[in-house]
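Archive transcription. Copying these from loose printouts into the bound notebook so they stop getting lost. Printout 1 of 2:
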Amino acid sequence: MKKVFLIIIVIIAATVIFSKNVNENNSSAYSYTGIKNIKTSMVIINIEVIGSDRRDVELEYVNIPDEIKLEVEKKGDTLSIVSNYKKKWFNGINLSKFKLIVYAPESTDLNLESVAGKISVRGINGQVITSTTAGKQSFENLTGVIKATTTAGDINGTNITLYGDSDFETTAGNIRIDFKNSLDDISFDMKAVVGEIEVNNNSKGREYSNSSGLYRLNTKSVFGNQEIKTSNLLTL
């Protein structure tokens, strides 16, 4: 009888310890295979996508409470993630800690939306479409086509290689992109309503355009500056 009681105590203790570790890490992960496209429609959740030499897609939920439900649906080679939540429950809560991390093959195409959250993408070779209402966007080590829009937030990019026409647009925020393309690769169509445009450290006023390059770069900011650098400058 004493042995049975001791075993029960050990099992309960182990369960308590395990539960505590899960709560402290406050994250969980799920894996999917055969995915070529990822779409998100998020509210109050930050999105981070990390591309690498892998075959599966792994979703990691960090600090996402039970009040937020993530609905994941796989149709063919497309994975869709949508967030639902109870209105007003998050009043006074630090929303910046809620995050969805996506580990994806580098050839994955992305269509990401977050209403009140940041978007970060790195290591992807494909088409990247992003949209935020109130949240900055950052891109690193990307090759492909980028369509990025935000109402309130900066758009930053480093080590970006374009192989198609791309767009960057913000209503209230700055645009700063470092391209690995040469200056001759890009045709510019840039507009800043209230702000300054700078290309390779040369001031271009509030509008700048040319059509000499292979890929067209469209940028627009209403309240904010724009700074573009290409490999011509970065390798000096």
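Printout 2 of 2:
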Amino acid sequence: MMIKILIIDDNDYKIENNKMILSSIYENPEFFEFYSKNSALKFLNECKSIIDLIVLDWNFPNFDQGMPEVGMGEEILKAMQRKTINIDTIICSSDKVNLENEYQNVIGKILYNPRASLKSQYEEMLKHKQEYPNPYTVIERDSPITIGNSNTSDFNRENEPFKNEYEQKKKRQKQLSKWKRKRSSDAWWKK
């Protein structure tokens, strides 16, 4: 049986990364992608019976070609609950997600990090769902910043030059804006 997965996210890189991970877990999954709340809900209303899993971002546009809005993922979950759409959902967001309510569809939350391998986290959540079908058991995982044998301190050391460069640039911009304000307030040339 081919699994059908709905991905609701506005970040193309993250969508492709999630597709790659889920393709390594499932054999020939079929993906449906939507970038906004309204288009995803319209699809869910029409095709809810064919979807097996939803991977849901937290912040994305309300309408197509709109700007991302905070908490659109929860709006999707609320709509699913109102319409009794019961599809297993994994929240995968770059932002820390705090759910206002318990949603029986949510089987896990992943703090997305492009530098970390998420496959084991997906596998853990999907396995946990099979072993413990209780809808209110949610696994929360913060992605460790690891690739291979590196750890967080290695990551911070690697990026120290970029951090220092960024801070120096910010300091120069601040000094330049102070100088511009002082010069415009002096207005000696206007006299």
